[in-house]
Design a protein that fits this description.
The chain is an alpha/beta fold. It has a single domain (5-193), classed as Glucose-6-phosphate isomerase like protein, domain 1 (Rossmann fold, 3-Layer(aba) Sandwich), CATH 3.40.50. The chain has helices spanning 5-28, 30-45, 57-71, 89-98, 106-112, 129-141, 155-158, 170-193, and strands at 50-54, 82-84, 118-122, 144-150, 161-165. α6 (129-141) links the parallel β3 (118-122) and β4.
Length: 198
């Protein structure tokens, strides 16, 4: 099926919205993005780990970014210790079944997290209760917490560093989340391994 003029206009509009949002993020979140990259790099340098978590598409983003840190992003370098708390179905379903769904990340963080680690919670709405609980527990453990979230919601207020995407559109926020996540990978690589060439 060839695109009609209506389709072409929609495609152009959606792509333009995404581009404008990324430009806005570059203008208003550069300090926070750099702070998040520094915190992750500092944790890795000290022998710490990065834990990532979220629901639905945000769960997929957590897994995607953990893979980038472990396997490599855009240069040849050693693997970095990143763990997505969204991948072990036996752990997740046992916690959800035996206690409550809001604890699927908190129990994992309590078992695996240590002072000096970083917890990165991803929530498009800023209101996902299990992500909020994860950030609270991580704070209590003494981890640096990062919220990759929306302008609204409680997640930003619970995080050491808040990456609040300035948009009300769920699809555009989700697109921006993975773009910011990729940028964190690139910045951490440059901080830790800038002398290594791909």
């Amino acid at each position: 099926m060839n695109p009609t003029e209506k389709h072409r206009k929609l495609i152009a509009e959606v792509m333009r919205e995404g581009a404008i949002l990324r430009e806005t993020i570059a203008g208003v979140l550069s300090t926070e993005i750099m702070a998040a990259a520094d915190a992750i790099a500092d944790s890795f340098k000290a022998g710490g780990k990065l834990f990532l978590f979220g629901n639905g598409g945000s769960a997929a983003d957590a897994q995607h970014l953990a893979a980038e840190f472990i396997n490599g992003y855009d240069m040849i370098r050693p693997p970095l210790p990143a763990i997505a708390l969204t991948t072990d179905t036996s752990i997740i379903t046992s916690i959800a079944n035996d206690s409550f769904f809001n604890g699927i990340f908190t129990k994992q963080l309590r078992a695996l997290g240590r002072v000096g680690d970083v917890a990165l919670g991803i929530t498009t709405s800023g209101c996902s209760e299990n992500v909020l609980e994860g950030l609270r527990i991580a704070n209590g453990i003494g981890m640096t917490t990062i919220a990759l979230t929306a302008e609204r919601g409680k997640a930003a207020g619970l995080a050491t560093i808040a990456l609040r995407i300035p948009s009300d559109s769920t699809p555009r926020i989700q697109e921006a989340h993975i773009a910011v996540g990729h940028l964190l990978c690139e910045l951490v690589d440059l901080i830790l391994f800038k002398e290594i060439k791909s």
